[in-house]
Every structure is written in structure tokens, then in C-alpha cells.
């Protein structure tokens, strides 16, 4: 038995040494050399690219361990032309550093796709994924980087810009950590999470994307910290289809819809953020979503600081709801808001607006200096519980019960 074990170890060692012997370090200076290095690729190869432009007229689907290292994404450019994916990697360890991957072809394509891989992407850029409408296939293409399968890893100090669909998409149980990424000017969502994927997002920027900065569906999950969502053409962040979010110490501002929207049975824990200057609410909940909202600032939004409707539920504590153009807190149609110890001040309309068929609890809140009532209750029912609130210096009065 010992001899069998020893033989097995020897063969395993010989196989590993053989694979290492076949792996190459290749330095390339031009497009032909890069094409040849990729054509001759064997798992374990490391390819080093000097500064310059590299054209890849044909696509490559590479399986195994690989390193591609350039001189920086403002110095080394790989120009991709192939349909569907300019280049793709799978089933290995993928290290990419210091390269700008730019799709320049005329066909529909993501810039890059990575499947079932362990990846480390450092200081790279993904640009110009091409989307053609109507799409030719069931799958649509045009994003910057598509991660799917059971991919795992870290992306840091990288950029996803000017793509025809998403900047970065995670799908099919992907688990990725994102540090200091910038996701700008993509035609649809900046970061798209779906189908049980997970992302940890830190110190990142999502700006001027055609849909939302971040869109989450398909029971996906995310943790976001110290990040910025600004000037997106829809929501700063949108959760739907049973997705879950923890967001803290971040800001979402000047978006065309809400700073953060929850819908379709989604849930969020929202702590110590600043949602301001959005064209809709700072925070919107509808369609049976839920949130715990603590120690945030919801200010200077065109509608309310927090808006809740359609049988959604939010617990709202120790927040500042300030200078919004409608109410600080508004609940509608079967909504449930449990608000305690909030400062609700200087909103242009009422401090708190409780619409008919909503059911809310207000306790120990301060509603001050609002343009309407401190608290406005429409079609009062026994469902609303209002206790020990301070309502002062509001233009219309402290509290108003409509049709008691």
C-alpha cells in the first residue's frame, strides 16, 4: 500500500514539474507577437506587453492559468474585434494588470467574458462594448466585463467606461470583491448583479450611467461601503426580485430617479449614508420591499426624503430628513413606516405625510420648521400610532387629521 502511495506522489510531482516546465514567460512588443503568444498559450503562461497598441482581429477563448501584464491602462491598449466576446477566459487563475481592453469591432460583443475562474484584475480598463439593436441572439452583448459561472476574486483600481450595455455584470453564483473601481457612462447599468451573485463594493464610483449606477435582481446580494452613486439617468441603486443589500457610509446624489429604490420583495439595511439632491425620493420602497434605515441623511430631494408604498415596510430611526421639496417622510397605499427619534425639518411640504390606507407608527420624532404641517394624517384610522412627537414652528400647524 505504501508503494502505491509513493508512486502516486511521484507521478503527481512529475506532472506538476512538467506543467511548470511547459509554462512560459513571454515578452511581446507588437500585435503579431501577442497573437502568436495567445495562439501558443498553455496553462501557466505569463505574457508581458510593452506600452503600445495591440490589435486582435480574431477572438481567443483561453482555458487555464494565465497572466497578462501591461505597462498601465493609459499606456498598453489591446484592441479587440471578435463577435460576442473580444477575449474570454475560463477554468483557471486569471491575472490581468495594467491594460486597457477596448472593443473596436463592428459586431455585437462584450469586451471580455470570464467563466468559472479565480481572477485578480488590477489597474485595467474595459471600454466600448458594442450593443446592436435588435439583438441577434437570446443573449445580448455589449458590456465591458461579464463574469459568470462560479468565478471568484478581486478587481481593484480598474475602470469600466462607455460600454453599450453594462460596465460590469455578475451572473450565476459569482463572488467578487470590488475595490476603488470607477464605472462611468455605460448605456445601461453601471454594475449589474443577477442570479444569486454577490459583490462587496468598497471606495468606488458609479457615475453618469444610462440606467442605474447599480442594479440588483435574481436574489443577488451586495455589501457597499464608502462608495458614490451620482448623476445616473435612473436610480443611483435599484433592488428588485428578492435581492438584498447592506449599504453604509456611502452617498447617492443627483440621480434622475431616487438615490436608492427597493421593489419586488427586496430588503436593505441602510446605515450612515447620505442620499441627497435626487430628482425623486432619497429612498423609495414599493411592491412589498423592506428596509431598516438608521442614522442616514435624506436631504434636498425633489420629492420626499423617504417614500413608502405598496405594502412595503421600513423601520426608520435617528435619520435627518431635511429640506426635501415634498414631505420628509411620506407613506402611501398599505405602506408601513415605523419612525422613531428622527429629525424632520425644513421640508417644503409636511414633515410627515401619512396617506389613506397606510399604517404607521411615529414616536419621539422632532418635526420642525416645515412648510406644511409637522404631521399630516389623511383619513385617520386606528392603524396609525402617533406618540410623544415634537412638532414646532411648522407653517400650517403641528398636526392635522383629515376626515377623522
In words, what does this structure look like?
By secondary structure, the protein is mostly beta strands. The chain has two helices and 46 strands. A 16-stranded parallel beta sheet has the order 1-2-5-8-11-14-17-20-23-26-29-32-35-38-41-44, with helices on one face. The chain has a 15-stranded parallel beta sheet with strand order 3-6-9-12-15-18-21-24-27-30-33-36-39-42-45. The longest helix is centred in the first third of the chain and has 21 residues, at 2-22. The protein is elongated. The relative contact order is 0.05. Residues 1-21 have low confidence and may be disordered.
Biggest sheet, strands in spatial order? 1-2-5-8-11-14-17-20-23-26-29-32-35-38-41-44
Overall pLDDT: 93
What's the helix count?
Answer: 2
Task: Kindly state the percentage of residues in helix.
Answer: under 10%
E-strand count = 46
Please state the structural category. Answer: mainly beta
Label the overall shape: elongated
What can be said about the biggest beta sheet? 16 strands, parallel
Proportion of residues in β-strands: over 45%
Low-confidence stretches: 1-21
User: Termini distance?
Assistant: 88 Å
- Oligomer designation: single chain
Amino acid at each position: 500500500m505504501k508503494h502505491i502511495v509513493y508512486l502516486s506522489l511521484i507521478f503527481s510531482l512529475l506532472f506538476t514539474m512538467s506543467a511548470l516546465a511547459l509554462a512560459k514567460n513571454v515578452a511581446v512588443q507588437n500585435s503579431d507577437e501577442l497573437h502568436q503568444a495567445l495562439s501558443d498559450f498553455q496553462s501557466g503562461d505569463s505574457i508581458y506587453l510593452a506600452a503600445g497598441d495591440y490589435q486582435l482581429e480574431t477572438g481567443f477563448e483561453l482555458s487555464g492559468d494565465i497572466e497578462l501584464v501591461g505597462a498601465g491602462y493609459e499606456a498598453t491598449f489591446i484592441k479587440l474585434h471578435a463577435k460576442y466576446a473580444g477575449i474570454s477566459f475560463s477554468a483557471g487563475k486569471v491575472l490581468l494588470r495594467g491594460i486597457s481592453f477596448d472593443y473596436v469591432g463592428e459586431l455585437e460583443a462584450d469586451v471580455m467574458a470570464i467563466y468559472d475562474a479565480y481572477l485578480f484584475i488590477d489597474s485595467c480598463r474595459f471600454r466600448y462594448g458594442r450593443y446592436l439593436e435588435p439583438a441577434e441572439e437570446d443573449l445580448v452583448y455589449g458590456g465591458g466585463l461579464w463574469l459568470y459561472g462560479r468565478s471568484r476574486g478581486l478587481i481593484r483600481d480598474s475602470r469600466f467606461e462607455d460600454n453599450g450595455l453594462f460596465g460590469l455584470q455578475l451572473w450565476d453564483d459569482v463572488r467578487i470583491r470590488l475595490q476603488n473601481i470607477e464605472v462611468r457612462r455605460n448605456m445601461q447599468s453601471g454594475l449589474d448583479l443577477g442570479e444569486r451573485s454577490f459583490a462587496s463594493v468598497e471606495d468606488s464610483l458609479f457615475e453618469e450611467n444610462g440606467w442605474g449606477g447599480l442594479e440588483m435582481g435574481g436574489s443577488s446580494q451586495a455589501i457597499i461601503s464608502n462608495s458614490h452613486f451620482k448623476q445616473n439617468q435612473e436610480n443611483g441603486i435599484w433592488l428588485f426580485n428578492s435581492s438584498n443589500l447592506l449599504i453604509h457610509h456611502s452617498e447617492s446624489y443627483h440621480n434622475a430617479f431616487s438615490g436608492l429604490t427597493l421593489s419586488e420583495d427586496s430588503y436593505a439595511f441602510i446605515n450612515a449614508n447620505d442620499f441627497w439632491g435626487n430628482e425623486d425620493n432619497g429612498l423609495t420602497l414599493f411592491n412589498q420591499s423592506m428596509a431598516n434605515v438608521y442614522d442616514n441623511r435624506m436631504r434636498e430631494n425633489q420629492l420626499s426624503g423617504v417614500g413608502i408604498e405598496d405594502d412595503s415596510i421600513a423601520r426608520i430611526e435617528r435619520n435627518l430628513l431635511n429640506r426635501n421639496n415634498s414631505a420628509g417622510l411620506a407613506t402611501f397605499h398599505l405602506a408601513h413606516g415605523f419612525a422613531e427619534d428622527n429629525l424632520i425639518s425644513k421640508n417644503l411640504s409636511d414633515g410627515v405625510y401619512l396617506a389613506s390606507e397606510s399604517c404607521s407608527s411615529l414616536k419621539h420624532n422632532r418635526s420642525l420648521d416645515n412648510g406644511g404641517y409637522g404631521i399630516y394624517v389623511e383619513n385617520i384610522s386606528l392603524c396609525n400610532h402617533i406618540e410623544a412627537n415634537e412638532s414646532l414652528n411648522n407653517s400650517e400647524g403641528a398636526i392635522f387629521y383629515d376626515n377623522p
